[in-house]
Amino acid sequence: MLTSVLLIAHSAAPPAAGAERSEASSAAPRWSWPLAAPFRVVSAYAAPAHEYAPGHRGIDIRPLHGTAVRAPADGLVAFAGRVVDRGVVTIDHGDGLVSTLEPVAWAVTAGAPVQRGDVIGDVDAGGHSEPGALHLGARVHGAYVDPLLLLGGVPRAVLLPLG
Predict the structure, then answer these.
(1) Which of 21, 69, 86, 153 suits a disulfide with 127, CB 3.0-4.6 Å?
(2) Rounded alpha-carbon distances, angstroms, from residue 40 to 27, 33, 86, 139
(3) Which residues contact 36 (CB under 8 A, 6 or more apart)?
């Protein structure tokens, strides 16, 4: 029996001739992925019906190699510390755009400037994400949005045989 696993690989390659691109990935992404490839998106964004309704206000990503967490874009660290049972890093990217990453064993301090791709810590334990996964949330003027819109959609998947 042949089994495959979905791996996400960063790729700047253009789509093949005739391939359709989603609206989310048609423009250059504003953010870069906070984990190095390969990784898996293990839980997608699920918009709540209203502000206080249940939902998943971000995406969960599982690194397959290494645990370094990187800033998705330039900004200022608004918060780096413990919230209940997990480390949280919040970055203010300006123009009302904020990212939150958790659980993170943070290596930055509030007020520190960060550049896209800077290491801000390592994936840690705690929170609602499955163990070993990183939660990435995005807010625009306080309203949660799907981080994939800022990441340019899900990158091209690479299927590798197991066994």
Answers:
(1) 86
(2) 22, 11, 21, 22
(3) 10, 63, 65, 66, 68, 70
> Which residues 6+ apart lie within 8 Å of 158 measured at CB?
7, 8, 9, 38
Question: For residues 58 and 42, is the Cβ–Cβ distance under 8 A?
Answer: no
Q: What is the pLDDT of residues 58-91, one digit of tens each?
A: 999 999 988 999 999 999 999 999 999 999 999 9
Residue whose token pair is 């400037």: 113
Nearest to 107 by CA among 126, 130, 134, 87: 87
What domains are there in the chain, each with its CATH number? Answer: 56-152 (2.70.70.10)
CA-to-CA separations, 51 to 5, 47, 54, 57, 149, in angstroms, rounded: 35, 9, 9, 10, 20
Rg (the chain; Cα; Å)? 16
In the chain, the DSSP E strands lie at 3-8, 39-43, 59-63, 68-70, 75-83, 86-94, 97-102, 104-106, 113-114, 119-123, 134-140, 143-145, 157-162
- Overall pTM > 0.90: no
